[in-house]
Design a protein that fits this description.
Number of domains: 2
Oligomer: single chain
Number of strands: 2
Order of helices and strands: HEEHHH
Strand order of the largest sheet: 1-2
Strand content: under 5%
Distance between the termini: 14 Å
Number of helices: 4
């Protein structure tokens, strides 16, 4: 019984680390795939469609602080340290939860 509980907590720890790394590493890749790149919004991408919709809804411009503006900022400059910590914490918690043994 001791070995099983030790492996369960070890598996949860590994899953927590993997979850944190994946959460922080996936966001920039996903944003790039959507079209939020370091050189601007890619033409004919989901990001371009979002920007067009936001601009039309806002009377011709994208509002500062809007979702599109924030995603473009992250795509261009990367995640801030605070964002990395928050994403890492959330990914770690989710990974630990998914990697923990089922309760009896």
């Amino acid at each position: 019984m001791g070995k099983e509980s030790g492996w369960g907590s070890g598996r949860a720890a590994v899953a927590a680390v993997v979850g944190g790394v994946v959460a922080v590493g996936t966001v920039p890749v996903a944003l790039g795939a959507m079209g939020f790149t370091s050189v601007g919004i890619a033409a004919s991408s989901l990001a371009a469609k979002m920007m067009s919709t936001a601009a039309i809804a806002n009377g011709g411009g994208v509002a500062a602080g809007s979702l599109v503006a924030i995603l473009q900022s992250v795509g261009a400059a990367g995640l801030s340290v605070t964002s990395k910590v928050i994403l890492g914490f959330a990914g770690t918690a989710l990974g630990a939860w998914l990697g923990s043994p089922p309760s009896s």
